[in-house]
Amino acid sequence: MKAIVWYLLLMSLVWELRAQEILIEGVNFKTQSPPGDWQGNMNCGPTSALILGSYYTGVEPTASGLIQLLDWMYEQQIIVPQNDAEYYDGNVTSVSQLEKILLEYFPLGETIRQNKKDLDFIRKQLLKQNPVIVGVNINMNATQFGHFMVVVGLSETQVTVHDPGKTLGAYRKYSLAQFQASWATSNHATLVVRSNGVLWYPDGALIQPVGSNKVYVVSDGGLLWIKDEAVFNAMSFDWQKIIPVHRRILDCLSEVGTVDWQPYREVWQISGKYFLFEKTSQNASNCAIYQFASKTALDSWQLKQSTMTLSSVPSYGQGCDRGAMLYLHNGTLVKSTTDLNGYGVGAIFVATGNGELRAFDSWDTFVMMGYENLPLMMLSESAILSAIKTFGNPITQNDALFCLTGIYEIQGASDPAEVDNDNDGFSVAAGDCDDSNLAINPFAEELCDSVDNNCNGEEDEGLVFDCFMDCGRGIHYCEDGYWNGCEIIEPVAEIEDGIDNDCDGLIDEGFVIPEDTDSLDVDNDEDGFSISQGDCDNWEPTAYPDAPELCDDLDNDCDFEIDEQAICSAGKTCLSGKCQIVEAASQINCQVTCPEGMLGFVWWDIDKTLTGNQINLQTSETELCQRGEAWFDFNCACDLNWSCFNWQEATVQCNVAIEIKAGLVDSSGEGEVWFPGVACY
Amino acid sequence: MKALLVLFAVLSLSGCLPSPLAVSEDHSLPDVTSAQEGEDDTFDFMIQKDNASSAWELAQDELFSFSLPVNWFYEVEQNQNLLPRSASYVIKVKDTAEQVILGAVSLADSSDDVQDPNAEKIATEYTAFNVLVYSGEVDFTDLSWTDFFVDYYPEVLTFESFVLAGKPEVNAVVVTKTDGMWLGSKRVFVHVKDSFYDFSLHTTRPNQAKAEELFWDFVQNFKL
User: Fold this and answer.
1) Residues whose CB falls within 8 Å of the CB of residue A318, separated by 6 or more in sequence, listed in order
2) What does the pLDDT read at residue A224?
3) What is the mean pLDDT of chain A?
């Protein structure tokens, strides 16, 4: 059953990746009440932690589970009960307290806690199938009270959250702008479990399920448990290369054996060649000798033994078995300094199957498998070719997400709530509010039909558009399932032309000027101001001194500026008198130049990189805005090994206004170029 | 102040409560002050009840004018990132100089294993009044309470009208049922002209009744 659910969830994930939105399905939702009632309930933090804990441990988050957690928090004096509130209404919590829950109550291994405006971090965590706890506000409203939610999805324009503060809080969507404004009120408080949700790794990968103290090495499609620390060290495994994974991987890669022996090893150099001499123990008689394909291959094994230079094989090795040639150690990450085998400069590979080298098909695949934090070897093409036998197929997201054992076949779900009856990709359990209608699901477009098409608990919400007619500006909105036509809210001014300009049934009303009245003192548009009183447009009722500036191509407040600071709804900006979505596509060119002998690096967009002594970056506002705000980072390195670097050595010139800062957003060793004139939506 | 309270009591007793919507049968919600007059005056902050004129002081901002107890603190913040369904101003009045965090999430402390120095400046004992002012975003003139709550507080299920003591012309409601997170031990919504005001009371002090009394006085004296 669980296997089937995970299969469906993973199918959903792949579909979402294609749709440019990352969404984690299968994160069970729980409201923060019960226990406690809604009045004064402050359980959003513990409930968010419970949602994560339940996700990683594979149990349902329940009210009784929340009660047990609150009891533990009271017992540990992490919080105290509120005055004048129900006992299980909880109390204010901070991110560090939630981290304590994840680490000590469940426990879930490692967490990452930070206060950075880093949407790319959230995106990466979602790629890794990790829900992210964020500090925001009730209703995602930056002016309301502080609140915790769990981010489960992200696209270029929207964020999807589990909001424990609502009864229908699962998979709610908010605009990215609204989320960012709210997130900022908590100083971008962010908390996530360090884990990776993929189901397959190549041979040689070291993995550790979250919350487990067992470390495994992947071998022949199965898992070998590395018995203890002594064995781990004796086998020259690298602690830095352990990848924390979701424990569901154990449903896919089964434990097939144990690594429990500590070999005795020597490294020999004979006539310029390198050999590994190995015995099961120092006193054992059986032994084997392996030859390394090259010095690079030897280095990748990270053996602790010092190399013994010999003229020939010593007598105690004469009778040993001759083992296979040793290539790059399985699991070694390699980056080539040049274009290797047509994969492009900067491509990253992983060694597997003793001699096979496989590239990652994309940066996203590399990240979602958890490799981006692991050490890698920067090698020349010749060094790499000396240490491998062949290139394998690139590793794709499909490889990473699907089991090779075939246990995730669809066999039919037995729980009716988990069956997708209308084949729209969502079951009732996954948020489909009408599982008999293909057009109704959490990702459907909201239509004007008195139906909750997108299953967010609201009917026909947000269906309002500006419209323009001869009579003036109006709004076109959905009411009771029907479009209203265009309701004029800002009629044009009536002028003395024999026509009913403002469609109020009157012709040229207001044009009878009493005799002996100075026309400068007449308030033609009845806005309370005449020309002598400062009205800059006496035929326009929306224009008068200190009037609210509207997006209408008029100087409403009579300050000789048109549409300045006019307010538009989220995602739109005022251009040419209309609130409209700005397609940021104008070309931006920058030149980053490092001193002679140094190598420049530029990183922009989500994952784009350029390298060279003089870099000509040709990009656009759209690309620069992929990070939420318009900026890119750069650096100058002495060499490809980054033996030294200094971003301040670089000169940066762009065809638009820029601000250069020390690394505020990214690592402190890099410089950042910000574009104050570029507004991201 | 007392004169206003007496007026309110008389209005209530004589059945003068207007009924723009449903009128609360439970008078305990708005009628909180008179019953507490004779109770214990000891409080964590010193308010001289016998001399109302010196116990309160006037705070005047460019846009707002309101009274607050002497030695209290206030902050008026304009919402720079005006987004749909968000208040244009936030006013916080509190009885402590320390930072008061309203809601269920406190300031996140440092992620570098170094305790945030602000952490010790966050008040654990406080009484605070929070006012969210919605104006200038859309035309509120003819917006009904139902539409307002749908747009701004979707968790509100039911609410009841009542008359704010001394301000019979003011259109005020109190929320009675929600299906979502709802903070503030007292929460009053007022609609005046083209603005909506959301007043809420938050206290961790032991004397809740005294805090409520001050809250109602604060609301009544707020220049709408």
Assistant:
1) none
2) 94
3) 83
Residue A653 neighbours by CB distance under 10 Å: 10
Q: Do A115 and B181 touch (CB under 8 A)?
A: no
Where residue B22 falls among pLDDT bands split at 50, 70, 90?
A: very low
Name residues 179-208 of chain A within 8 A of B (Cβ).
Answer: 181, 184, 186-187, 189
| CA atoms within 13 Å, Cβ hemisphere of A602 | 25
> Could B83 and A142 be called an inter-chain contact, meaning their C-beta atoms sit closer than 8 Å?
yes
C-alpha to C-alpha distances, B165 to B14, B33, B97, B197, nearest whole angstrom: 14, 10, 30, 16
Integer Cα distance of B109 and A94 in angstroms: 7
Give the three-class secondary structure for A232.
Answer: helix
Q: How far does A90 lie from chain B, in Å, by closest CA?
A: 9
Instruction: With beta carbons under 8 A apart, name residues in chain A contacting B83.
Output: 141-142, 177-178, 181, 570
At residue A603, the pLDDT reads: 87
A-chain residues near B111 (CB < 8 A)? 113-115
Query: Residue A94 is nearest to which of B86, B108, B153, comparing CB atoms?
Result: B108
- Number of neighbouring beta carbons within 10 Å of residue A205: 25
Are the Cβ atoms of B154 and A139 closer than 8 angstroms? Answer: yes
Please give the structure tokens belonging to residue A519: 């026309």
SS (H, E, C) A41-91: CCCHHHHHHHHHHHHHHCCCCCHHHHHHHHHHHHHCCCCCCCCCCCHHHCC
Q: Could you give the CA distance from residue A349 to residue A82 in angstroms, rounded to a whole number?
A: 54
Residue A67 pLDDT greater than 80, yes or no: yes
pLDDT in tens, A327-358: 999 999 999 888 888 888 888 999 998 899 99
Residues in chain B within 8 Å Cβ distance of A144: 86-87, 103, 132
For position B201, what pLDDT does the model report? 95
Chain A interface, best mutation among B83, B88, B112, B129, by max A CB count within 10 A? B83
> At A270, is the pLDDT very low, low, confident or very high (cuts 50, 70, 90)?
very high
Q: Between the CA of residue A136 and those of A55, A133, A486, what are the distances in Å?
A: 21, 9, 36
The CA dihedral of A491, A492, A497, A498, to the nearest 10 degrees, is -10
Contact A139 B132 (CB under 8 A): no
Contact A302, A236 (CB under 8 A): yes
Q: Tell me whether B180 touches chain A (CB under 8 Å).
A: yes
CB A268 within 8 A of CB A275: yes
d(CA A619, CA B12): 69
Provide, as residue numbers in chain A, all residues whose Cβ is less than 8 Å from the Cβ of B204.
82-83
Element containing residue A98 per DSSP (H, E) = helix A95-100
Q: Measured in Å, how far apart are chain B's first and last C-alpha atoms?
A: 17
